[in-house]
Request: fold
Amino acid sequence: MKVRDVMTTDIRTVGPDDTIDAAIAIMTERRVSGVPVVDGAGMLVGILTEGDLLRRVEIGTSGHARLLFLDLLLGTGREAVEYVRTHSRRVSDLMTAPVMTVTEEDRLREVVPLMERRHIRRVPVVRDGRLVGIVSRSDLIAALGRKLAAFPPPSATDAEIAARVRQELQSVHWLGRSSSVGVRVEHGVATLEGIINDERLRDAIRVAAQNVPGVTAIRDKLTFIEPFTGAILPD
Reply:
């Protein structure tokens, strides 16, 4: 899937010269964690997030312990910058810039790792530098829900379902040749039998079988055998 398939296009924005009051009102009304900042030409110039608003003099969170020798080392310039962030009410003084952005044609499998690495909840979508949308974690969850709801109802015999489970297990690389798994299906209940040499495979095999349309329940009869020793351990 691509960004354009899941992104939100109904976006509220603020300008760099707006007050943070306007941004907070949008964040509260829309229940979002950040507001894009655009200039008069519609170009994205930043984003104001919850993290930018955490340390504020109004709510008593601006103070922080400082060691005297660090104050002497860093000078008063750093304190001046901190003062602006904790006291200014202008969006441009607090917003995060530059902003990581994506395009409509970027694939979600490339965007999600970026969001995870940078610990961000939403990413602006731009076209030629202009904001056209937002892709957020909630957009991704909503897309997942639509995909799951779109799965067709099963219409297969037990034998066909069992064949699909075997096919799925044959397609995964983690099962390996040293494990041997058999599958029987009766009235939608898949019975898993055979030998595994790693307990971590048990859950993975169960999930692979559960995801096959038509499987209604799993009966686990897999036997774990300790590698190399051949000793059978109880489930």
